[in-house]
Specification:
The protein is an alpha+beta fold. Helices cover about 40% and strands about 25% of the residues. It has helices spanning about 1-35, 45-55, 70-105, and strands at about 120-130, 135-145, 150-160, 175-180, 185-195. The termini are far apart. Mean pLDDT is about 85; it is low at about 15-30.
Length: about 200
Amino acid sequence: MAEEEKEEQVEETPAEEPVAEEAPAEEPPAEEPAAAPPVEPEEALHPKQARKRARSQHEGEARPQRAPEERQAERVAGRRQKSQRRHAYRLKRRERDRARRAAAPAPPEPPAAAKPQGKPKVRQGVVVSDRADKTITVRVDLTRRHRLYEKTIRSTSTLHAHDEGNEAHIGDTVRVEESRPRSRTKRWRLLEVLERAR
């Protein structure tokens, strides 16, 4: 029996060898076409565009029709879920910011000083109207040189100034100072009358 087994093994070995040699020759051509197409990286799409593309490529069965109440219930459930996620995210972020602020050193406080106040504007002009009570209209003439063309440019503006004692009259040269709003158009007050009209 042992001799018969040895003979069978010897007979089987040469028969298996040619098959083993032929099999590897057939397998590599089958593997090469599978590895040939390169994988293209997916382009980054906006979420709306990605959803639209997914819907257009969907080939499965459509969902059964639902009643408007069921759709509304789904929407409400989805919104509730998103709201809970947002709430949890915001809580985490607040905690993280709080920890970061606690870890960072406090900036030095500037010395407490009085708030510097700018000087009010002062204009000089000629009174063109004193008809209203405690109000004068002042024409301010401005002359300046143009930066590029060096031409003399004259411009005129009118201001309404508060005149508490009705001191100024038409034709007087006066100096007015910027002040708090006294009425819809009055933002100036009379400082002094420089020259009386003749």
